[in-house]
Design goal:
The complex is a heterotetramer, with one copy of chain A (about 270 residues), one copy of chain B (about 220 residues) and two copies of chain C (about 300 residues). Chain A folds into two domains: about 180 residues, no CATH class; about 70 residues, no CATH class. In chain A, strands 1-2 form a two-stranded antiparallel sheet. Chain A has about 270 residues and is mainly alpha-helical. In chain A, about 70% of the residues lie in helices and about 5% in strands. Chain A is flat, with a radius of gyration of 23 Å. Classes of the chains: A mainly alpha (about 270), B mainly alpha (about 220), C alpha/beta (about 300). The complex binds adenosine-5'-triphosphate (2 copies) and magnesium ion (2 copies).
Chain lengths: ~270, ~220, ~300, ~300
């Protein structure tokens, strides 16, 4: 659609709705709590072995759930670049064995093995979080999500959340169809902005107003079929089973263990 | 733009919690204000939900540099939804971004605070300068730039305060690196100010009711 | 029934049969924010058990009228009374239970993550249990011949499939009045015949009244009890299809063309040099008549 | 021309007349990201000066094919050769100059702030000067009878008006090939006749080849030189309209219904108990024939 490297929410939804594996039958609560545990774990530990083990388990789960791994890897592009470009500024002059130095106008920047290790650690943490989030999204039906959202968030917030999620599909579809239209008549965004700048200012404004008006219409269409802000009232979220509780307990144990083993892990 | 596209694991737990708590407190205040001013606000909610979607959609189109430089649209959110709904909107945007890996879950707190600064500053300037600058384009542009500038300062403050796990550079060195980012961000802010100005002027022409002000 | 011509200068809205009137559009006007006139002093009514077709040029105001019927648009002037409830006076909290509207652009209507969820949305809001809603949805999808799409994402459908699903979404709710905007555009002939049959069946079985806006005048001729010609945002003339579609001048004035069946018959009479005495409007009638004319 | 039936198991693409071939779809397949099959080993070609109609059930793959013709979609397998340039081999930088596509959903096609800007967009990209582009746009809008909409915002048009404008946007570019997806859906009979006339005129005056995907089989019968029946993403049979539309079984297999004219004629013959010897496909032909049959 817009770019290979941006998660395609239509595809994500499609996966979630078509899924019929253990992972999609598991309680959304379990997955939600696991997400918190995963985020805590990667915040607390920088141990590469632990991180690699976590990453491997999550990847395995994705493969077992039959998720499109190729796409997921393509979607890694942005997070990877985020980490590398920002942390890339900060890995210089770490303690450790120097690998090489740069001399920029009197500043001496030294890259050490610790610096390289740092970037790897942060990268792995990022990928763990991204992969688990996508796993969560791609194995949980929308109905469960909306039910979770309306349990977790107080009122106008949950409405904004749910409507925004719906509108997102529209807005992205609108943007995609605009690109299609422009390309099919020989334009290209960059090219056309250059040659017909004035027009494109209007195009931006119009796309904005148009997607807004479509959002308004869709909202009215929902009202016309009885929507009154409680989209999720009909869904009951399955409770975690025994096995799932076990997994959650193990996760909590891991957090406690890491606290206990590495008291400074979290920088306390 | 000022938005920390750091992934999970960059901040220590302490700082993750600190920023989350402050952010939640702000959201709580926003919710409290919203509940107090009862009455029909379905339309406002639709607007809020829409700008969330639009901003998130634009978030996706970014220049992969220095942690993801991209148009940000938070000032536009402020102009269209106001600071109270705007606070909720930035929370939702950040959650959605985290869900697809553009920014970590743990950093949502910090990101919300940065965006909140943008929203509040942009809103105050946009509304405050109504008498001085009647032209929608310039008013929105200036508000946007100012909002983004303050957001940037907030981002630097947050990174300087929390540090990045494992990074042992001196504050001076970190600041040097960050100033590079600020420079790029301010360049983007100019583009965004122009764009926001155009969009706001356009909306003002054909749907002034969305802006909540009558045609000047 | 005789043709009623409406004087564009001065419109009267007379309640034709107040007891049976389900929809009464009382001299309603709608001006869009940019100043375009959607409808202008339009008078229109729908009786119980009636199928009414709105026909008119592009931009004549059909869709604008239809979107008023369930309160999506509110008249800037005049009033709309649905089943006794006035829209202008805001007595319209659950208008959606009375009137189901299928939009001209079907993608505006599809918002749930899957087709099945989308069709179930209305029935659930009506308070059905999950199982009942599921059954209702599957039945509606079967009725339009789209049950194999149930698990697909609405964004991943072809143009005609979207139309079918959006019709199913309204069918599943069994409203008392259905308003369909171009229900058969984008549909292949088989599915379009299916929808046509459904509309008739719904009237028979559930006493549902139907308003359709359509450019397919042959369709209007086949199923409508009454045809309203819309021009410049007002009803220009109304009457039974047989009367309206055989009034060549009227149709031309409304910027339309007669249905194919009618034209075939008229051309035939013209070529044979006989006066068109009958008024066939469906293919079956035409064929019988032609056969009779031949063997005479 | 005789009907060519394509074996669904094994497709051959034989270049029918390589010299005149403008479009050659060579066993192309397209699978959508969710695994839906858009087209499957489709073979199809368009000659110079030819009007080809694609007819097929909802979801049979017509739109998918059309979006391949100017490179908006790229075949996942097989190839498409437009005027000698292979799409698969990426020789398609300015395919848009060759093939103009009108989308099924016209609002997808309109993006500029005013109708005039939108219609001028293509001509400007072709390198015309502002004045020339303006003239071309006005002419195109006149041709479709929508010149009075020039100053309006595209999203504030009625359904049919959007369609007219999106057709004008392509007309203004005068491409060598035009591919129109459901060009007449949402159009009233008068405008739809206008578009029909335009398509014929463009072929006459500029030698433009036209591909239309349509459910209006009467339209296809009137204007197409060749009809391709599409089924399950492949061309199932092709031939002249006269042959295809009189092959009742074939049409039924493709999930369609015969055009009205054809059905009227067949029903008439059936009722009279005579064998249908001729094959009228336009109303004029039908009327002449009926008249002859009567006076015999
Ligand atoms: N959202 C809108 N904003 C402004 N003007 C509009 C809007 N929608 C329609 N119009 C204008 O209102 C008039 C009536 O439009 P409407 O959509 O009701 O026509 P219609 O009879 O449904 O036509 P069609 O057969 O082409 O769908 C037209 O002149 C149109 O340009
Ligand atoms: N964007 C999409 N993503 C996934 N599947 C799609 C998409 N568009 C179409 N399809 C599927 O591909 C098949 C062919 O669709 P296509 O739009 O080409 O049909 P069509 O012949 O144009 O039908 P219609 O007459 O209803 O417009 C259908 O089964 C449809 O569900
Ligand atoms: Mg309409
Ligand atoms: Mg199609």
């Amino acid at each position: 659609m817009i770019s290979e490297h941006i998660p395609d929410i239509d595809l994500i939804t499609n996966c979630a709705e078509q899924q019929d594996t253990v992972f999609s039958r598991a309680s959304p609560w379990t997955k939600f709590l696991l997400l918190i545990i995963v985020v805590l774990l990667i915040t607390l530990t920088s141990n590469l072995v632990v991180l690699t083990a976590m990453y491997a388990i999550i990847l395995l789960a994705c493969v077992m759930a039959g998720l499109p791994m190729r796409k997921i890897i393509a979607w890694y592009a942005m997070p990877v670049i985020f980490v590398i470009s920002l942390v890339g500024l900060m890995i210089w002059n770490q303690p450790g064995n120097p690998l090489f130095s740069l001399d920029i106008g009197g500043f001496v920047l030294t890259l050490t093995d610790q610096g390289i290790l740092l970037i790897f650690t942060l990268l792995e943490k990022a990928l763990i979080s991204v992969t688990f989030s996508l796993f969560f999204l791609m194995t949980t039906k929308y109905a469960y999500f909306s039910a979770l959202v309306s349990r977790l968030f107080p009122t106008p917030l949950d409405q904004i959340f749910l409507l925004a999620y719906r509108f997102l599909f529209l807005t992205l579809a609108m943007a995609a169809s605009m690109l299609k239209a422009v390309r099919s008549r020989g334009g290209g965004i960059i090219h056309s902005i250059r040659t017909q700048g004035g027009l494109f200012a209007g195009v931006f404004g119009l796309v904005f107003v148009r997607s807004f008006e479509q959002a308004e219409r869709v909202e009215k269409a929902m009202t016309a079929r009885g929507y009154n802000g409680t989209y999720a009232a009909h869904t009951t979220i399955p409770k975690p089973g025994i096995a799932e509780c076990g997994i959650l307990c193990a996760g909590c144990l891991a957090i406690i263990l890491i606290f206990w083993m590495v008291p400074h892990a979290g920088g306390w | 733009m000022a938005h920390i596209h750091l992934e999970d694991g960059s901040f220590t737990l302490t700082w993750v919690l600190v920023w989350w708590i402050i952010a939640l407190a702000c959201i709580g205040i926003a919710l409290w204000v919203l509940r107090r001013e009862k009455g029909k606000n379905q339309k406002k909610i639709t607007i809020a939900a829409f700008v969330t979607a639009a901003a998130f959609a634009l978030f996706q189109i970014n220049i992969p540099l220095f942690g993801g430089v991209h148009l940000n649209l938070t000032p536009l959110v402020a102009i269209l939804a106001g600071p109270v709904l705007g606070a909720l909107v930035v929370l939702v945007i950040n959650i959605l971004s985290a869900a697809i890996g553009h920014g970590g879950w743990g950093l949502i707190g910090a990101n919300v605070l940065i965006n909140l600064v943008e929203v509040v500053v942009a809103y105050l300037i946009f509304r405050g300068s109504r008498k001085i600058i009647p032209d929608l384009f310039s008013r929105a542009g200036i508000a946007t730039f100012a909002g983004l500038f303050c957001g940037n300062l907030m981002m630097v403050a947050i990174i300087m305060a929390s540090g990045i796990q494992g990074v042992t550079q001196t504050p001076g060195q970190v600041l040097a690196g960050l100033s590079l980012i600020i420079a790029v961000n301010m360049g983007i802010a100019i583009v965004e100010a122009l764009l926001t100005g155009l969009i706001v002027r356009y909306i003002g022409n054909i749907r002034p009711d969305i802006l909540g002000e009558s045609k000047p | 029934m005789t043709i009623m011509r409406h004087d564009p200068q001065h419109q009267h809205c007379n309640h034709s049969d107040p007891g049976r009137e389900l929809i009464h559009v009382d001299c309603a006007s709608h001006v869009y924010p940019d100043g375009s006139i959607g409808i202008h002093e339009m008078c229109f009514h729908v009786l119980k058990d009636e199928i009414v077709a709105l026909c008119g040029q592009n931009g004549s105001g059909k869709s604008t009228l239809i979107e008023h019927l369930n309160g999506l648009l509110v008249p800037s002037d005049g009033d709309i009374v649905i089943n006794g409830m006035s829209v202008a006076r805001g007595e319209r909290a659950d208008l959606w239970k009375e009137v189901g509207v299928v939009f001209q652009r079907s993608e505006d209507q599809l918002f749930a993550p899957t087709v099945l969820d989308d069709v179930m949305f209305g029935p659930l809001n009506l308070g059905m249990s999950k199982e009942d809603a599921h059954d209702a949805a599957i039945k509606a999808l079967e009725a339009v011949g789209a049950v194999d799409l149930a698990k697909k994402l609405p964004n991943y459908l072809s143009g005609g499939q979207k139309r079918l699903v959006s019709i199913a979404g309204i069918l599943a709710m069994k409203p008392r009045i259905m308003a369909l905007d171009e229900p058969t555009s984008d549909l292949d002939p088989v599915h379009s015949a299916m929808v046509e049959r459904l509309i008739l069946e719904f009237r028979e079985r559930f006493g549902i009244s139907v308003v359709i806006a359509t450019h397919d005048l042959d369709l209007a001729a086949r199923i409508a009890d009454r045809v309203c010609l819309v021009k410049n945002g007002a009803v220009y003339a109304e009457g039974s299809p047989r009367e309206i579609f055989y009034d060549t001048d009227l149709i031309r004035d409304a910027g339309l063309k007669q249905p194919d069946t009618v034209m075939t018959y008229l051309d035939y009479c013209h070529q044979r040099g006989v006066a068109p005495e009958d008024r066939p409007i469906t293919r079956a009638e035409l064929v019988t008549l032609l056969e009779r004319l031949t063997t005479q």
